[in-house]
Automatic annotation (TrEMBL):
<dbReference type="GO" id="GO:0046872">
    <property type="term" value="F:metal ion binding"/>
</dbReference>
<feature type="binding site">
    <location>
        <position position="75"/>
    </location>
    <ligand>
        <name>Cu cation</name>
    </ligand>
</feature>
<feature type="disulfide bond" description="Redox-active">
    <location>
        <begin position="71"/>
        <end position="75"/>
    </location>
</feature>
<keyword id="KW-0186">Copper</keyword>
<dbReference type="InterPro" id="IPR013766">
    <property type="entry name" value="Thioredoxin_domain"/>
</dbReference>
<keyword id="KW-0479">Metal-binding</keyword>
<dbReference type="InterPro" id="IPR003782">
    <property type="entry name" value="SCO1/SenC"/>
</dbReference>
<comment type="similarity">
    <text>Belongs to the SCO1/2 family.</text>
</comment>
<dbReference type="InterPro" id="IPR036249">
    <property type="entry name" value="Thioredoxin-like_sf"/>
</dbReference>
<protein>
    <submittedName>
        <fullName>SCO family protein</fullName>
    </submittedName>
</protein>
<feature type="domain" description="Thioredoxin">
    <location>
        <begin position="33"/>
        <end position="195"/>
    </location>
</feature>
<keyword id="KW-1015">Disulfide bond</keyword>
<feature type="signal peptide">
    <location>
        <begin position="1"/>
        <end position="21"/>
    </location>
</feature>
<feature type="binding site">
    <location>
        <position position="71"/>
    </location>
    <ligand>
        <name>Cu cation</name>
    </ligand>
</feature>
<keyword id="KW-0732">Signal</keyword>
<dbReference type="Pfam" id="PF02630">
    <property type="entry name" value="SCO1-SenC"/>
</dbReference>
<feature type="binding site">
    <location>
        <position position="160"/>
    </location>
    <ligand>
        <name>Cu cation</name>
    </ligand>
</feature>
């Protein structure tokens, strides 16, 4: 598939799954009932500087969210909501993790991610991932995530898709968690998915 066609597909799916300008409210996302496959292999670096790949998605239910640490509203709000949803899962939370993948690798170094994700209002044990611009573009393409730098200078922002991707313990895509849901609704969606797989 050519680069222009991939970019058009990413824009189309981004519109369907909700975009966040990290400064503007994002639209609602929806479940992928179209048979679209999301996710795939990646090589990234976590907030401790350790190289990781898609294998970290195996063994637990995972909420994958793309954003960046300089985001003023959508990203911290989403992470706080995921933290609350995880708490509401109770004992089932031991089988759930959150992975935050930056769309701003220029500023989001491992140490920047580590500092940012240490907030007590974010999910316990959240894994932050960064990489080279090419690595981030590749993983964003695997998840059909739209992102685009906006503005210039040190204070630029990054427009990006705001949906959360729920992956099953095999590392396969299960469903989209729409932006703007309450923690209770997210908890219910995750618990229902967990129940489907026994």
């Amino acid at each position: 598939m050519g680069l222009k066609r991939r970019a058009a597909l990413a824009l189309m799916l981004g519109a369907a799954l909700g975009l966040g300008a990290c400064g503007k409210p994002a639209g609602q996302g929806g479940s992928s009932g179209s048979g679209v496959q999301l996710g795939g292999p990646f090589q990234l670096t976590d907030q401790t500087g350790k190289p990781v790949d898609q294998g970290l998605l195996k063994g637990k239910w995972t909420a994958v969210f793309f954003g960046y640490t300089y985001c003023p509203d959508v990203c911290p709000t989403t992470l706080q909501t995921l933290g609350s949803a995880s708490d509401l899962l109770g004992a089932r939370a031991k089988n759930f993790q959150v992975v935050f993948i930056t769309v701003d690798p220029q500023r989001d170094t491992p140490s920047q991610l580590k500092d940012y994700l240490s907030s007590s209002s974010f999910p316990r044990g959240v894994i932050g991932l960064t990489g080279t611009p090419d690595q981030i573009a590749k993983v964003a393409g695997e998840y059909k995530v739209y992102f685009q730098k906006s503005g210039s200078g040190a204070n630029y922002s990054v427009d990006h898709s705001s949906a959360i991707y729920l992956m099953n313990p095999h590392g396969d895509f299960d469903s989209v968690i729409a932006f703007g849901l309450k923690p209770e609704d997210i908890r219910d969606q995750i618990a229902k998915a967990m129940g489907k797989q026994g």
